[in-house]
Design goal:
By secondary structure, this protein is α+β, with helices and mostly antiparallel strands. The chain has 19 helices and 28 strands. The strands form 5 sheets. Strands 1, 2, 3, 4, 5, 6, 7, 8, 9, 10, 11 and 12 form a 12-stranded mixed sheet that branches.
């Protein structure tokens, strides 16, 4: 069976192609008919698709349009014209309205971690083929010298300078930021670019101005335009604004390879967008937004810059070249920075991108025996084209225990009860989805969905233990939840909660749970809580259902931990819940009252080797204050247990630290204190010994 025609080779239909070429050449149908010696009706029939000219007529058309016959036959390129690529600035509103910046850009912080979260979520939502992962590549590139000059020339920077200078004169936040960016560029003569590429994504398909992915990203605000069958992570249409917010100049260039042809082509659809505040240049007022492209020839959009199909040289000059022809989009952020101030050097920015991708999308990067991962992520840093740093984000390296838990679920290797350190226990957690307001009967209890909870012992180097990482949809981390009232002696654990499509299942309950949880998320998609969409779309009781769901998560965790009878093969950093309390009674003496007990102990070792310990106490009623004197000791492999000093002791709202003691006032029934050991007093490195904590009563009686 012959293969179907490839639209990137055979191009678009003859009629639309010819109509656009005549418009670009500023030639009417009547003019073409006259030059060809044909009737106006014949040319009209070609334009409308009712007929197509003979080959000899096509050759004559090519001659008239100033191109070759191949261009007319394949129709994969436009006829060259004298219309150069340039910047088009939107005129000011006729009613005098002004915007001093893009409000959508202020919905999030201009933080690299936020950018990575929002941009990668959008890429996952646009996954093209279910048989391979979305591949995202973050390329940080610093330019100076001749490399910088070449890029600014390709960008037509000289056209923008007057607009930047005038837009930076105001007193608004955006104007002040622009002044700083222009000053730094002038003095330092260097510029940072951040290109965000995705592959196996849909690309910016659709027409230039009406509904479609292209217009939603390039022309509109608050247009999500997600077509993922209810599986999308995003829903507000705000995430794309983080691209422009991360640019000190409000400038982003775009190159898209389309999954569906537009104008008969798929490769190299390019446009630039600039967001400035209202300003005036040469007596003309401008609204702020501007687009880099080819002047449009449509009568209703005359002079507006539209996207164009760029050649390889243009793409290289603009640093927009892509690898291969897989569909997807490249966004080039000009003047990229981290507004939080936490990442200033190239190394810091690189590391922050790697860590952010690992924290938010580790689960999407894990595949099972029958299905591969949803995502692959790479981060590369260049200096004038030379590679400085390069990383493929490995979820197992950043979140080993969590990755082990999800891997076991995807491979079908979970257990009902933990008996060893590397096992993963699974349990179902019910979520009752409230009916929509226009569906279901009054007081309808709703539909039950069984989310999946996975729990495994924490590894020795896990930083945030005893938390549940919650997700849905494409397995982006939504929120972290610490279960309440954990059992006495709870060993450190990590847990994952999969809801909706993150369970890997399909069905009505899955789709309902996915939509319900998505409606409960704010624009940041970082929690499940009250939102306007939730309260206006779902029947009364939706908030109660969310609270019940969180309570069920806690309950399930406690149940799994209560069953646990595992033994850990002891790594040297394993911490046991060793808390000894001396009530002061002599040997064989009779205690006059009960004494404090331990609810939980948490510990970790930092990069210096210092132990950080948090101790949760349950205390009986006492008429006098408890005065406790915590002592940290190293449980080494041989010899005694040498004591180590405290670098700091800190109480909580229910107790206080005073001169190395913890004082708990009368009547307090629970208390928490924290301590950090002093590495200078350690007989061996902190990671080479097990820590024990004794908490006897301090000498000197009560406070």
């Amino acid at each position: 069976m012959p293969e179907s025609p490839n639209p990137t080779i055979h191009g678009e239909a003859f009629g639309p192609w010819l109509k656009r070429q005549l418009r670009r050449a500023e030639m009417s149908q009547a003019d073409l008919a006259l030059k060809l010696g044909k009737t106006r009706a014949a040319v009209s029939a070609w334009i409308t698709g009712r007929a197509e000219p003979r080959e000899e007529t096509k050759a004559r058309i090519a001659e008239i349009l100033g191109t070759d016959l191949a261009s007319v036959v394949t129709r994969t390129v436009d006829v060259p014209t004298g219309r150069p690529v340039s910047w088009h600035h939107r005129p000011a509103h006729a009613d005098g309205g002004r915007e001093y910046g893009n409000a959508a850009a202020f919905a999030f912080d201009a933080d690299l971690s936020v950018l990575a979260r929002e941009a990668t979520q959008n890429s996952l939502d646009e996954r093209c083929s279910d048989h391979s992962p979305v591949r995202v590549r973050y390329t940080l590139h610093e330019l100076d010298g001749e490399h910088l000059d070449a890029f600014l020339d390709a960008l037509r920077w000289h056209e923008l300078v007057p607009h930047y200078e005038e837009a930076s004169r105001g007193n608004q936040k955006v104007s002040r930021s622009l002044r700083s960016a222009l000053s730094d560029l002038s003095q330092e003569r260097r510029l940072r670019l951040l290109r965000v590429d995705d592959y196996n994504a849909a690309g910016l398909t659709g027409p230039e101005y009406s509904d479609g992915r292209f217009a939603a990203v390039v022309r509109r605000q608050l247009d999500s335009h997600k077509v993922t069958g209810g599986r999308a992570g995003g829903s507000y249409g705000l995430g794309k604004a983080t691209l422009w917010a991360t640019s000190r100049f409000g400038l982003v260039l775009i190159n898209s390879t389309l999954s569906e042809p537009y104008e008969g082509r798929t490769v190299g659809r390019v446009i630039g967008r600039l967001d400035l505040p209202w300003h005036e240049v040469g007596g003309e007022a401008y609204a702020g937004p501007a687009w880099l492209g080819e002047p449009d020839t449509e009568p209703e959009h005359e002079g507006v810059s539209r996207s164009w199909w760029a050649d390889d040289d243009t793409l290289r000059g603009l640093h927009l070249e892509r690898s291969g022809t897989d569909p997807g989009t490249s966004f080039l952020i000009v003047g990229a920075y981290d507004a939080s101030g936490a990442a200033e050097s190239l190394q810091e920015m690189h590391d922050k991108l790697v860590q952010s991708l690992a924290n938010d999308f580790w689960a999407a990067m894990i595949g099972g025996r029958t299905a591969g991962p949803l995502l692959e992520a790479h981060v590369t840093t260049l200096l004038n084209g030379d590679v400085r740093f390069q990383d493929q984000v490995d979820p197992h390296a950043h979140h080993a225990a969590l990755s082990r838990a999800l891997q076991a679920y995807l491979d079908g290797d979970t257990v009902d009860e933990l008996t060893s350190a590397n096992q993963v226990v699974r349990a179902d957690v019910p979520l009752v989805v409230t009916p929509l307001k226009d569906q279901g009967r009054p007081r309808d209890k709703g539909r039950e969905h069984l989310a999946v909870l996975l729990l495994t012992p924490a590894d020795d180097d896990d930083g945030q233990i005893n938390h549940v990482t919650c997700m849905r949809g494409n397995r982006m981390t939504i929120t972290e939840q610490r279960p309440r009232d954990l059992p006495l002696g709870t060993p450190p654990f990590r847990a994952v909660l999969l809801a909706g499509y993150a369970t890997g299942r399909d069905g009505e309950d899955v789709a309902l749970a996915e939509a319900f949880l998505r409606a409960s998320e704010p624009p940041e998609h970082d929690r499940w809580d009250r939102t306007e969409e939730l309260t206006t779309t779902y029947q009364r009781g939706s908030l109660t259902r969310l609270k019940d769901f969180r309570a069920e998560i806690d309950k399930t965790v406690r149940s799994l931990l209560g069953k646990r009878e595992s033994t850990r093969s002891g790594g040297p950093a394993a911490l046991r819940e060793l808390l000894k309390l001396d009530t002061g009674a002599g040997a064989g003496g009779r205690r006059s009252q009960s004494f404090p007990t331990v609810r939980n102990v948490e510990a970790r070792v930092d990069d210096r080797g210092a132990w950080h310990v948090t101790v949760h106490l349950r205390l009986p009623h006492a008429d006098d204050a408890w005065v406790l004197s915590p002592v940290a000791k190293f449980d080494v492999r041989s010899g005694g247990r040498p004591s180590v000093g405290w670098e700091s002791l800190v109480g909580s709202e229910t107790c206080r630290a005073d001169s190395g003691t913890i004082i708990v006032e009368p009547g307090v029934r629970s208390a928490v204190f924290s301590g950090v050991t002093d590495p200078a007093t350690h007989p061996v490195r902190g990671g080479y010994a097990r820590l024990t904590v004794d908490v006897p009563k301090a000498r000197g009686g009560v406070a």
